[in-house]
Amino acid sequence: MALDGIILSKVKDDLISHLPMRINKINETSSTEIVFNVHSNSLRTNLVISLHSIYNHIALSNANYTNYNEPSTFVMVLRKYLTNGIIYKIEQFNYDRYLLIHIRALNDMYDEKEYLLSVELMGKYANLILIDKENNKIIDALKKIPPYLNNKRTILQGAIFTLPENQNKKDPYNDLDIDFNESLVKQIQGFSKQLESEIRHRLINEPYEHIIEEIKNAKSLFVSSNNEYHIIPLTYLNENYKEYSFSDGFDYLYYSANEKERIKSVTEDIDKFIKRQSKHFETKLIKLRQSLTDGENLLDDKENGELLYTYSNLEQKGLKEIEITDYDGESKTIKLDPKLSIKANANKYFNTYTKKRKGKVYIEEQIDIAEKELEYFNALKEQLDMASYDDALQIREELIKYGYLKKKLNHKLKKQKKINLYQIKVDGYTITFGKNNIQNDYLTFTFGKAHYTWFHALNYHGCHLVVDSDKPSEKIIRLCANLAAYYSKGRYSSSLPVSYCLLKDVKKIKGGKLGFVTFKNYKTIYIDPEFDSNLQISII
User: Fold this and answer.
1) Are 134 and 43 in contact (CB under 8 A)?
2) 154-199 pLDDT, tens per residue?
3) pLDDT tens for residues 444-456?
4) Beta-bridge partners for 423
């Protein structure tokens, strides 16, 4: 699944058909993906430029891209120079994997300036470079390359911009004198191994000129069932395929894949924080429980003090232990501090008893707190593993709300948007669920009705789920239980218990955090969790 120069030439033609385009906003959705919100006479949409080493591409997109809250320095530079600029020309040379986007914009003095944006989609060398067109100098780049890494092409601020090296290959449409005994990729501009495989497969029954003519006239993206794609059907794969427009095709191929990168950009720091907190409370619990064990002999300390008081008339010091008779008439050896008298040792045992008694209560309280905190962070860890980009942002805001993370000085929180939930409609029933604490709390105590049936994986962290009925069918009960089990920590278990009851029987835990509840009058069903890819899950 790779973009070659031939595909890129068709994407370029598609983009040119909408010129001129005005750049309204520039957002960074991950460290390798930049989204230009653009509009022209014919459309208002997003221009997505992905510089991911595997998923790199450029295309128009109607998908919903959430703004990454902390833009990089490079994106701030793009905003400074290109916001409200006009894209008026797009070029590609020699069907290579880069585009030169010509942009006209006003500078700080309201003078018109021209810039180039070099979109280079060359696998792990993918890059985005902003150039001052007047002096051909680089203003900034996503990936900077100093001379000691590449002495032929330096990419640094102030360096002279040069195009990637020309490979001196044949024009795919005008030079049909091809040696089929040699690699087509090495001979023809814009060819990939994938396209060569398709052409050689077709040559058995079709002349080369006809294949090239089909490529020349292609205006769609054909995606096979294994997600390989090109501008003509890849028949050599023997797979089913679908035809898409370029924008719809790239959304289908890359939106979900790049979503992982977008999530990573948001979750990388909170994932480390959550794991660190979990480890902290695990270690704390071990120490607290050991302290509690050490304090269990407090009654012995009290008895030793009382016994020593019976011998308090003995004032001698220097004894390391004393053997006396306890209340049961048994002989007992009590250790002493040789620096202290018998009476002083008795007082020492009483003081130790008092401290341990008070300490036990405190330790038990701390164990309870640590257990709840560990449960909370383990739940967040599971939610983060299943989170979408927006879900991950909500987890971050939850941690800020509870004071675990500090709000950065330059971090402006957006107004609380409507809380999204996930929904499925089956057989006249509506099933709705959440995937993090904020969504679960909203679903259970705001969205749901008292007569709805509520589901949750028993003894596991997971989603809250409701179905809009107090008497759902057996099929719906099993479907809801399966979803509740799948979106829980126990998704890989077998015979997972899932509890369900009327929503009116679910209550918040007093003083507990979001998403933690108690429930009564429930039934339990056992499920082997399995995800049904045919379910149509929508976001509401």
Assistant:
1) no
2) 999 999 999 988 888 999 999 988 999 999 999 999 999 999 999 9
3) 999 999 999 999 9
4) 432, 538
Whether 70 has a pLDDT exceeding 80, the answer reads no
CA 414 to chain centre: 19
Residues 236 and 201 sit within 8 Å (Cβ to Cβ): yes
pLDDT greater at residue 66 or residue 34: 34
Distance between CA atoms of residues 5 and 16, nearest Å: 16
- Among the four given CATH numbers 3.30.450.150, 3.30.160.100, 2.30.310.10, 3.30.1490.20, the one describing domain 5-141: 2.30.310.10
Beta bridge partners of 485: none
Nearest to 77 by CA among 16, 132, 21, 135: 132
- Specify burial of residue 101 (Cβ count, 10 A radius: 0-12, 13-18, 19+): buried
Cβ–Cβ contacts within 10 Å for residue 127, how many?
19
> How far is residue 141's CA from residue 129's CA, in Å, rounded to a whole number?
4
Does 472 sit behind a cis peptide bond, omega within 30 degrees of 0 on the bond before it?
A: no
Q: Nearest 5 degrees, angle CA 313-CA 319-CA 325?
A: 60
Smallest CA-to-CA distance from 83 within 62, 105, 114 is with 105
What pLDDT, on a 0 to 100 scale, did the predictor assign at position 382?
A: 81
Helix (H) or strand (E) holding 8: helix 5-16
* pTM reported for the whole predicted model: 0.61
> In angstroms, rounded to a whole number, what is the distance separating the alpha carbons of residues 455 and 467?
8
Distance set, CA 9 to CA 46, 182, 356, 382, 424 (Å): 19, 24, 78, 43, 40
**Cβ–Cβ < 8 Å for 425, 431:** yes
538 beta partners:
423
d(CA 86, CA 65): 22
Task: Please name which of 240, 238, 239, 170 lies closest in space to residue 208, comparing C-alpha atoms.
Answer: 170
- Per residue in 364-417, pLDDT (tens digit) is 888 988 988 898 898 888 888 777 777 888 888 888 888 888 765 444 444 556
383 within 8 A of 438, measured Cβ to Cβ: no
Q: Looking at the DSSP assignment, which residues form a beta bridge with residue 47? A: 36, 60
- 368 phi and psi, to 5 degrees? -60, -45
Token reading at 192: 């990939």
Q: How far apart are CA 179 and CA 187, in angstroms?
A: 8
Virtual torsion, Cα 306, 310, 315, 319, nearest 10 deg: -60
- Domain residues of the chain, as ranges? 5-141, 184-244, 422-539
pLDDT in tens, 460-493: 888 999 999 999 999 999 999 999 999 988 888 8
Q: In one letter, which amino acid is 330?
A: E
Least confident stretch, 45-59, 107-121, 370-384, 449-463: 370-384
Radius of gyration of the chain (CA): 34
